[in-house]
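Structure in, sequence out. Go:
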C-alpha cells in the first residue's frame, strides 16, 4: 500500500528502533520511500538485515544497527560512532517495545524491569543522545510511538501502561523544551491503537483482526508529523482503528 502522505526526506538520515518487523518495518519503508537514509536498529539481526536488503533493492540506502535500547552505554556508543563518521541523525523514531501480559499478582520483578527498560528508559536514552546533537545542528525531529495505554489502561497491562504513560509525559516535556531551546526541532508523540502486527498477534493469536488497523496507517502518521511546515508543531497525534475498544 502506497502512502498518501508526501514529504521529501532526501539527504536526511533516520534511525528507527525495533525496525526489524511490524510497525518499525512499516515506518522504515515509509521513510525510505520518502528518500531518507534509514538506520534499521534492532536486536533481531536476520529480519533487520533482510529488511535492509529489501530497501536497497528498491533503491534506498539502509543499514542495520544492532542495538539493545535498554543499554545506555550501547546507545551512547552508536551515536558516538555516527558522529565520528559524520552521519547525523535527523529523524529519530522510538518504536521498540515489549510487553508481558500477566495479572500483577503473577508478575516477576525481572519482567517488569524488562518492559519499563525497553518502553520507557530506552526511548529516554535515545532522546538524551539525539536531542543535544539536534540542538547543536539547529534542527531535527523526534517521534515517540505511544499507545492508548498511555491514557486508559486495562487488566494485565500494568508495566506496559506505566511505561507508556511515562513516555508520554517525557515526550510532552521534551516538546516544551524544544520550543524553548530550538524552534527547528520537532517532537511528536503518536498514540497508536491496536495494529495487526506480531506484537499483538503473537501474544493474542485469537485476536479479532477486524478490530485492528494496518501498521502502514500508523507509519503514514509518522510521515505526516514530519511533513508539517516549520512554522507549525505537532505535539501529539492519535490514530486508532474505527472500532478501537480502549479509546478514550
Amino acid at each position: 500500500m502506497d502512502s498518501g502522505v508526501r514529504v521529501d526526506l532526501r539527504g536526511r538520515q533516520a534511525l528507527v528502533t525495533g525496525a526489524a518487523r511490524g510497525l518499525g518495518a512499516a515506518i522504515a519503508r515509509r521513510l525510505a520511500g520518502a528518500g531518507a537514509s534509514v538506520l534499521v536498529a534492532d536486536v533481531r539481526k536476520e529480519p533487520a538485515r533482510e529488511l535492509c536488503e529489501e530497501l536497497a533493492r528498491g533503491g534506498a540506502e539502509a543499514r542495520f544497527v544492532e542495538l539493545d535500547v535498554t543499554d545506555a552505554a550501547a546507545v551512547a556508543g552508536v551515536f558516538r560512532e555516527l558522529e565520528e563518521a559524520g552521519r547525523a541523525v535527523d529523524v529519530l523514531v522510538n518504536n521498540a517495545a515489549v510487553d508481558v501480559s500477566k495479572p500483577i499478582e503473577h508478575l516477576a520483578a525481572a519482567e517488569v524491569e524488562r518492559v519499563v527498560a525497553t518502553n520507557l528508559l530506552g526511548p529516554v536514552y535515545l532522546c538524551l543522545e539525539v536531542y543535544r546533537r539536534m540542538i547543536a545542528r539547529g534542527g531535527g525531529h523526534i517521534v515517540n510511538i505511544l499507545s492508548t495505554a498511555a491514557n486508559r489502561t486495562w487488566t494485565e497491562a500494568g508495566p506496559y501502561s506505566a511505561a507508556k504513560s511515562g513516555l508520554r509525559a517525557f515526550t510532552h516535556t521534551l516538546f516544551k523544551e524544544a520550543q524553548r531551546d530550538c524552534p527547528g526541532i520537532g517532537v511528536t508523540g503518536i498514540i497508536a491503537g491496536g495494529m495487526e502486527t506480531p506484537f499483538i498477534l503473537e501474544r493474542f493469536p485469537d485476536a479479532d483482526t477486524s478490530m485492528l488497523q494496518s501498521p502502514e496507517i500508523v507509519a503514514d502518521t509518522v510521515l505526516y508529523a514530519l511533513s508539517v511546515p516549520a512554522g507549525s508543531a505537532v505535539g501529539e497525534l492519535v490514530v486508532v482503528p474505527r472500532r478501537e475498544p480502549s479509546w478514550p
